Amino acid sequence: MSKPIVATTSLAGCFGCHMSLLDIDERILDLIELVEFNKSPIDDIKTFTKQCDIGIIEGGCCNSENVHVLKEFRKNCKILISVGECAIMGGLPAMRNNNASISECLEEAYLNCVSVQANDEKIIPNDEELPMILDRVYPCHEIVKIDYFLPGCAPRADLIWNALVALVTGNEMDLPYEVVKFD
Amino acid sequence: MDNKQSRNPEFSNNDNCTCECNDLDAILAKYNNDPTRLMDILIDVQMQCGCVSEKAVKVIAKAINYSSVDVVQTLSFYHFFSQTPTGKYTVYLNDSVVAEMMGRDEIAKTFEEEAGCKFGSVSEDGRIGLFNTSCIGMNDQEPSAIINQRVFTKLTTEKVKKIVRGMKNDYDTEDLIGTEVQSNILKQGPILTKDSNLGEAIKKAVTMSPEDVIEEIKQSNLRGRGGAGFPTAMKWRFCRNAEGEKHYVFCNADEGEPGTFKDRVILTDRPQLLFAGMTIAGYAIGSDEGILYLRYEYKYMEKFLEEVLSKLREEGLLGKDVAGEKGFNFDIRIQFGGGAYICGEESALLESAEGKRGEPRDRPPFPVVKGYLQQPTAVNNVETLCAVAKIMHKGAKWYRSLGTLESTGSKLISVSGDCEKPGVYEVEWGFTVNDILELVGAKNVQAVQVGGPSGNCIASNEFNRKLAYEDLSTGGSLIVIGNERDLLKDIVLNFTEFFIEESCGSCVPCRAMTVQYKNKLEKIIRGNGVADDIDQMLQWENVMKSNRCGLGHTAANPIISTIKNFRELYDAKINEDTDFVSEFDLEAAVAESCKTAGRVPNLGGE
């Protein structure tokens, strides 16, 4: 039987969840035995080259590119996992959802903030190449169907590892207390 | 932010209060600067000034030796207290289910047009404030509103126009065109039937020993009428046996369950009966002070009830040596709430009566051991105490002959909704839902909400069930829902919003999951639900059980009971061929940012 194929991405996240994945230390050698990686920052494959089994999503969606990538993942992966606070609830980026509209956020960032310098033309970045900013930061499950959720900021390496192994081997997941306590 | 959160005007840093908030000495002196009377202080200040401003908070805090935030903590909890001016005339229009059924939206629109401001705000000249409020106990005469503590029922657009015209011309609320609150007692039973001399019940009680009084109540098999059905005699015995400096009798008249109005009718039509019951309870548990905790919505009956109490004092049935019994002193005072459904829960009620936020306590200890001011306290429902007086008068044996074996006596039912004769019906326990529907002239009934939003929504296959503790238990409300109603949208959604509004916020599942429930329900109503959404809502029921009090335990009931009893309504709205429907709309989501940056949205890249 061929090895299950895993893809990963970081949307509106800080790459902390990917760092946490790397915290599995020497087990990364076991991981390579267990699965094959496709599109992922880990092997730097930029686009899907084949159908994958598992998609690991870090971060929520704050712009149109995040939405595009997330939808690509849904198309190309059998199972999607939201990993970490940002993917599940929007996380830190979603702080902008609370009190200000997106226009207020952009005006503060590019026009009004005391640290704004040398923007005499009062430009808010508008190049066609730039992703369009969404009105608020969305958790992934509001945009596509997500199959599993691994909470934490970041989720511990052991949690990610245990979940992956359980999923790949079909065994029940090992969830000792240390792995799911968050403080 | 959410426009529906319009009941409590937000705290404003600009102190734009124009009245003499400093002049609160008389109010504070009236309550001896007692922090446990903070509710009364806030009510009086709110009535005098139209709000409790930042300035007033400081004055109150200093006088009762609290910090300002402690005062604000209580103040901000109750929705009839406000930190910003609510207008010379403050209109609280009921937005409960039955009000909506009876045409509340049209009334609200007329108020807005005539007053020139939206609900949740005050007109520019500061004259008229419009606010929504939960059920005000007038379900048999909706749409209705409270304006400056006075109740206006059966509103029509014509009446509203006249009322607003009156407000614009500075009329006293007394002189505004209005309609009186009607009692609508449509069937009298053993409790509501008037007896010639209620004093006899008290006189009879005081000739017996307190233990014998409790025994008599035990023989009657009387159980609490608030909904939980706890045996009254057992409660009293626990309370009597508990040690404390002082024992208290509380009457829970915080009738907040939407659709319930039977206590209001007792309070205005049979108050002597209730006060007699409280006095007997006082004698039985060894208390000299009774407190009637009355919801703020019923403030309009304060003067009347005070007169009744004065008369009882003159007759020697309250005060010193009650009914001629040397050494038995008992008096009753009225404690008003500030507008919070949760205060119907007995421990939240006691917190509120002590001048605090109405958050339920952890139990044990139960109120019978540590209740009001940490002293043994018996909290009884209005109807229970009325039954006590009747049992004393006519005997336990008589009472036991009524109703069923396990549910003795009778029950007052408040009936409203789609029926010809909404009102209060007193029936013996054991009547079926069908019997009642026939009495009230209800035809083409789709569903009956038994016991308010926290109760059960039943379909016609259960209309043969009996109202009794052993079958269909109820605190006393039946809302009849006709065939033409959209059950999910008109009823269940409104009830769910009610719980979001009334959650005290202490337990996370109650505070947060109620909103999740509403979101899911709305998604299903919009036609974007999938089978998994229904399963999830059923699963979440277990999480709701971890809440601390009855409100939290039952907050999902409107949805859960309709999924169980009206599954077909949900199934008809969900998408069968998919396991996920995204409601995300990229075009809408990027519109504002693109406009701000001055670029054309590029949506074709998919």
Question: What features would you highlight for this structure?
Answer:
A: 183 residues, alpha/beta, 5-stranded parallel β-sheet, 7 strands, 33% helix, B: 606 residues, Glutaredoxin, Rossmann fold, Ubiquitin-like (UB roll), 4 domains, 6-stranded mixed β-sheet, 5-stranded mixed β-sheet, 24 helices, globular, disordered N terminus
How are the elements arranged and paired?
The complex is a heterodimer of chains A (183) and B (606).
Chain A: E1 5-10, H1 16-22, H2 27-34, E2 36-37, E3 52-58, E4 61-63, H3 64-76, E5 77-83, H4 85-89, H5 102-112, E6 133-138, E7 148-150, H6 157-169, H7 177-180
Parallel strand pairs in A: 1-2, 1-3, 3-5, 5-7
Antiparallel strand pairs in A: 4-6
Chain B: H1 25-30, H2 38-49, H3 54-64, H4 68-75, E1 89-94, H5 97-101, H6 104-115, E2 121-122, E3 128-133, E4 145-147, E5 150-152, H7 157-168, E6 185-187, H8 199-207, H9 210-220, H10 232-241, E7 248-253, H11 262-269, H12 271-285, E8 289-294, H13 302-314, E9 331-336, H14 346-353, E10 377-381, H15 382-394, H16 396-400, E11 410-417, E12 423-428, H17 433-440, E13 445-450, E14 456-458, E15 477-482, H18 487-502, H19 508-525, H20 531-544, H21 550-554, H22 557-565, H23 567-571, H24 586-597
Parallel strand pairs in B: 1-3, 6-12, 7-8, 7-10, 8-9, 11-15
Antiparallel strand pairs in B: 1-4, 2-3, 4-5, 11-12, 13-14, 13-15
Helix pairs in contact in B: 3-4, 6-7, 8-12, 8-15, 9-10, 9-12, 12-15, 18-19, 19-20
